[in-house]
Specification:
Strand 1 (2-3) and strand 2 (11-12) form a beta hairpin. Strands 1-2 form a two-stranded antiparallel ribbon. Helices cover 34% and strands 3% of the residues. The protein is mainly alpha-helical. Helix 2 (45-58) packs across helix 5. The radius of gyration is 15 Å and the shape is globular.
Length: 129
């Protein structure tokens, strides 16, 4: 949770559930073409902190989808970030979405053929051929 209750500097509060979650510096198994998983499974704890830092320092938001079957869902995962990008004014909304940066941080650590840009095929490589 991020806030600035009258202070001059932004503050990030880390809730108890963060400390109880298993430490994920990076998954041991990396995505392999043909057996892809959503990038959410490879977002380390540091990626979650990056999400919070973007709220604090860049005033990003937790943006909700406004179109399609997932309307109303917050773009907190790989699929929803990609769906947000496809909406009207998608690039602007995606840049303002905090979790976009956590997904990007996970994506840049892998070869581009290891993950998908198609939200309908996050666990198959049909769109990468």
């Amino acid at each position: 949770m991020t806030g600035n209750p009258g202070g001059e500097h932004p503050t990030i509060w880390i809730c108890a559930s963060y400390w109880k979650a298993p430490l994920r510096l990076r998954q041991v198994a990396t995505p392999v073409k043909g057996t892809m998983k959503p990038l959410d499974e490879f977002v380390p704890n540091g990626g979650l902190l990056l999400h919070e830092f973007t709220h604090a320092w860049f005033a990003t938001a937790d943006v909700k989808l406004r179109e399609g079957a997932k309307k109303g869902k917050v773009a907190y995962n790989h699929e929803y970030v990609l769906r947000l990008l496809r909406e009207a004014n998608g690039p602007t909304k995606t840049r303002n979405n905090a979790h976009t940066y956590a997904i990007f941080a996970a994506a840049v650590t892998f070869n581009k053929s290891s993950w998908s840009l198609n939200p309908d095929h996050l666990s198959a490589d049909r769109d990468l051929k």
